[in-house]
Amino acid sequence: MAYKKYLNKNFAIFCGPGNNGGDGLAIARLLSLSGHAVQVFLLNSASKRSSDFDINYKCLKEVASVIIDLKEISLPSLAADTIIIDAIFGTGLNRSLDGFSKQLVEYINRLNNKVVAIDMPSGLLTDLSSKGLTAIKANNTLTFQCFKAAFLLPENEEYFGNVHILDINLHPSYLNSVETTFELVDQQFISSIIKLRKAFSHKGNFGHALIIAGSYGKMGAAVLSTKACLQSGAGLVTAHVPAKGVEIMQISAPEAMCRIDTQSEIISNIDYDLKPYTSIGIGPGIGKEKMTTSFLYQLLKDYQKPMVIDADALNILSENPDWLSLLPPGSILTPHPKEYARLFGNDMNDLEKINTALQKAHDLKIIIILKGHHTFIATPDGKGYFNTTGNAGMAKGGSGDVLTGIITGILAQGYKPNEAAILGVYMHGAAGDNAAAKYGMISMTATDLIEALKTPDLLTK
Ligand SMILES: NC(=O)C1=CN([C@@H]2O[C@H](COP(=O)(O)OP(=O)(O)OC[C@H]3O[C@@H](n4cnc5c(N)ncnc54)[C@H](O)[C@@H]3O)[C@@H](O)[C@H]2O)[C@@H](O)CC1
Ligand SMILES: Nc1ncnc2c1ncn2[C@@H]1O[C@H](COP(=O)(O)OP(=O)(O)O)[C@@H](O)[C@H]1O
Ligand SMILES: [K+]
């Protein structure tokens, strides 16, 4: 955060009666001691105060500063350049705001002043959905020690602004001992998964991926996923494509071998042994023709190893929900929000969405990747992972095809399905961040994502 922007400004600090309010009072003291003009507004100060509040209240009283008890009738008027600090409620809020606290938050939101929220924007709930609730709309949120799940959900986007994590020195062994349903996937996490390539290894050590993709007019999806697969570390890659798509594929991705469908424009059957392939990715650009649909059914019935399932293969599944039970255990589904809604329903808030994904992942013994900003990976053992790489430059056609190729290639190398999903999503986002740094979010394309995979420190920085 550009802290310098806030130097020598006036501050209005709104404090609730709990520990969050206590943090606000401590901030007021420190700002006062460093010569800033500070006004402190207390909400419900007569109600039960936490001990942290009381301690910090006493300390603040010893420093000259203005402390005002807020009454319903008198909301304060503030100069336009006063910085508002929101220390009304933090993680202790257990229900939606009402009465005066709601009125106060609505009032602060109507002002054009810059707002810094402490720990959580007041009104946001930590463990429940905040969809449709009243909460502070902050420009910046200074949160303590850990990212809160609430900052990872699209429905909360307008509330927290830029999130900064402040280290308050909680002991690492304490943090490691806390069992959580959700994990953040960052570089450290990835370094615990990644396998080194041994010096004496050969292509046979890195598996053989089969990408089943494309139809007439949608060969681009097949090319993107095949090229991404080639750059994910797989030893060998074969693309199964409609007959008319072979030349396109061979010219675009000469390192890949081709299997040629008996149909010229669609995918309709596989008449060869699938044993040599160590992973299969199916879906990008395949369409939903009858023959393709029957072929998918047959494949689901016959194939036993985990598959990566994307795009039209997901759409076919959503039209035939009974087939979900045929998915080989460990299979990885990669729906974007619309595909997810078609598969599992429409009217869910973001928390319901991720909880449903966890439940379905458990029941069907599969992995569900809910794509978006902070892509969520639901695993069958009940854990969910939020990704930390990626950016809005990736919100373009073709980005998902690249992800399918990457995950299929990682799965081919012998990574466990959970690991392949997590590593693939992280790598894809890291490539997106590299592409954005090089070309900018507006102009970068899915092809640039593939190009950006070729970065030596992609997984180590
Ligand atoms: N390890 C930690 O947990 C730390 C927590 N800290 C601070 O402590 C905060 C949590 O403090 P608290 O647990 O005291 O909780 P809060 O200060 O967030 O709020 C609790 C107060 O709000 C009241 N309340 C709850 N829901 C309400 C509603 N809908 N309407 C009106 N009043 C409502 C409660 O009765 C209680 O008085 C964190 O957000 C953070 O700011 C930090 O001081 C550092 C360490
Ligand atoms: N705002 C964003 N931040 C981070 N990643 C994003 C963002 N928008 C899209 N992406 C990523 O880009 C990919 C888009 O996939 P998808 O919608 O299936 O594209 P397509 O089907 O056109 O290939 C997903 O992996 C998604 O996570
Ligand atoms: K707050």
Indicate the proportion of strand residues: 15-25%
Based on DSSP secondary structure assignment, what is the total number of beta strands?
17
CATH topology of the largest domain: UDP-N-acetylmuramoyl-L-alanine:D-glutamate ligase
The CATH architecture category of the largest domain equals 3-Layer(aba) Sandwich
Shape summary: elongated
Taken together, the total number of domains comes to: 2
Runs in which pLDDT lies below 50 for 5 or more consecutive residues are none
Query: Can you identify the CATH class of the largest domain?
Result: Alpha Beta
| Nearest-integer average pLDDT | 95
Q: Helix/strand/pairing class, anyone? A: alpha/beta
Question: How many helices does DSSP assign?
Answer: 15
Can you tell me the CATH superfamily of the largest domain?
Answer: Ribokinase
Helix content: 25-40%
Main sheet attributes: strand count, strand direction, barrel closure: 10 strands, mixed
Instruction: Please tell me how large the radius of gyration is.
Output: 26 Å
Terminal CA distance reads 21 Å
> Widest sheet: strand order?
8-17-16-15-14-13-12-9-10-11
Bound molecules: ligand NAX, adenosine-5'-diphosphate, potassium ion
Protein name: ADP-dependent (S)-NAD(P)H-hydrate dehydratase
Subunit structure: Homotetramer.
Binding site for (6S)-NADPHX: 221, 285, 336, 401
Cofactor: K(+); Mg(2+)
